[in-house]
Amino acid sequence: MTLATMLSKEEKRLIKEIWERLTPVAEDIGSDALLRMFNSYPGTKTYFSHLDISPGSSHLHSHGKKIVLAIAEGAKDISQLTVTLAPLQTLHAYQLRIDPTNFKLLSHCMLVSLACYLGEEFTPVAHAAMDKYLSAFAAVLAEKYR
Amino acid sequence: MVEWTDAERTAITTLWSNIDVGEIGPQALTRLLVVFPWTQRYFGTFGDLSTPAAIAGNPKVAAHGKVVMGGLETAVKNMDNIKNAYAKLSVMHSEKLHVDPDNFRLLAECISVVVAAKFGPSVFTAGFQEAWQKFLAVVVSALGRQYH
């Protein structure tokens, strides 16, 4: 919660607006970010050995969509991030147990995907706000780990 | 020695040949200073860095961004010997500039975001990104190599 409060009112508004706009293309953004992560950081693929994550695969798309929709949901009310993410916290801590270092890797690829799709609109200010939000999101996600 | 596939070499040279260091460099450095404000510690003599707008409009930031980005030319021209090509620069960053080498990694991230925004998804594909980031990672490693 303390991390989420590091975002100013303007930053929260900006983040909420961006994700609202991108919700219709959640599948595209999500699958793009995942693909970039698997390509640049092959170690991340080890968590998906039970799925087909090849480019264009239905697993890649549905999974990417799921992740982006969760990020977009959190953006609707960032001050409530811990409440919104409670079920996902449990899932990641007790079932998925993804090493939290990987959240940073996906966050970076998410920023690259956003930059690709938004171009100049992804200003330094938007980039900074988004980086902070994704860091906060990842930290909240890992809260129940230990 | 770092092994580069033909695809990686092509990706890196293609991207580099389309990068205007005078354009990308200032944007990358601006982002570093805005997204990771603690990096401003190294730029006390640069004048007004108080707001993102001030940073983006700061001529010293722009000039320095161009210099730093231009420094990648050494790597592009010495892809099979990047470690040695940056030995002197590494010593300088350690002994004279006292820059925490983790900052090289942060700047590399910013460069990738700027390149992505510039080229879009059809050019900056997942494959190109992988090659470009591997390239930057080698440069980052070389720059930190001589620290002691």
TrEMBL record, chain A:
UniProt superkingdom: Eukaryota
GO molecular function: haptoglobin binding; heme binding; metal ion binding; organic acid binding; oxygen binding; oxygen carrier activity; peroxidase activity
Any Gene Ontology biological process: hydrogen peroxide catabolic process
GO cellular component: blood microparticle; haptoglobin-hemoglobin complex; hemoglobin complex
Presence of keyword Heme: yes
Originating species: Austrofundulus limnaeus (Annual killifish)
Keyword line: Heme, Iron, Metal-binding, Oxygen transport, Transport
The name this protein goes by in its record: Hemoglobin subunit alpha-D-like
Residue stretches making up the Globin domain: 6-146
Cross-referenced InterPro entries: Globin, Globin-like_sf, Globin/Proto, Hemoglobin_a-typ, Hemoglobin_oxygen_transport
SUPFAM superfamilies linked to this entry: Globin-like
Gene name, Swiss-Prot/TrEMBL: hbae4
Family: Belongs to the globin family.
UniProtKB/TrEMBL annotation, chain B:
Gene3D superfamilies hit by this protein: Globins (1.10.490.10)
Assembly with partners or alone: Heterotetramer of two alpha chains and two beta chains.
Gene behind the chain: LOC106528929
UniProt KW Metal-binding keyword: yes
Function: Involved in oxygen transport from gills to the various peripheral tissues.
Gene Ontology biological-process annotations: hydrogen peroxide catabolic process
Domain Globin: 3-148
Keyword annotations from UniProtKB, A to Z: Heme, Iron, Metal-binding, Oxygen transport, Transport
GO cellular component, one term: hemoglobin complex
SUPFAM superfamilies: Globin-like
InterPro entries, sorted: Globin (IPR000971), Globin-like_sf (IPR009050), Globin/Proto (IPR012292), Hemoglobin_b (IPR002337), Hemoglobin_oxygen_transport (IPR050056)
Name of the featured protein: Hemoglobin subunit beta-A
Keyword Lyase: no
Regions annotated as coiled coil: none
Source species taxonomy: Eukaryota, Metazoa, Chordata, Craniata, Vertebrata
Molecular function terms from GO: haptoglobin binding; heme binding; metal ion binding; organic acid binding; oxygen binding; oxygen carrier activity; peroxidase activity
Top-level lineage group: Eukaryota
Spans traversing the lipid bilayer: none
